[in-house]
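Possible regression after last week's pipeline update?

I re-ran a chain I had predicted before the update to compare outputs. Posting the input and the new output here so someone can diff against the archived version. Not blocking, just want to make sure nothing changed silently.
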Amino acid sequence: MNPMTNVKNVLKLSERELTGNSKNSWHDQYKDSAWIFVGGLPYDLTEGDIICVFSQYGEIVNINLVRDKATGKSKGYAFICYEDQRSTILAVDNLNGIKILGRTLRVDHCEQYRAPNADMTKIDELTASIRSGGCAPVVATAPLIPKTEIKQEKEPKEKKKKKEKKSKKKKKKKCKSSSSDSSSD
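New output (post-update):
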């Protein structure tokens, strides 16, 4: 089927759902998969570019931009996995049919997609570590400090600053008054 026909069919499904009084969504059929298919991508886009566009609807945990094995160039389609399945609904409803760099995207659910198991012997150590551990920064958890302790620590500092400002103003006044007294003599 023509890719533009697919885009129009998905848009029609969404419109019917909005106008009808049905209790079930056509998205419910894909409730067990957090993967989406994205077709019609410009060949110049990288994984990072695609993540920038699609991460506005949820946290992306995996992306497979399909590339030509011989040349390494993008084939123009990708599979994206979101952390939460609800993000796939948002992405399909909002990004299907949009134009990026003059090309119309087709965004649809994937019911049974599985990420390819890469041969770990053919990749370098850095890529293997990223695939096994992910590339998100590790956030260290800090111990919680009760609010009462925080306020007690801040108050003396603020009082010291106020006292220092007052003493500086007094010094300036003294300097001005003494200089004005000496100039009047």
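Follow-up from reviewer: compared with the archived run. The CA atoms of residues 177 and 183 lie 10 Å apart. Marking as no regression found.
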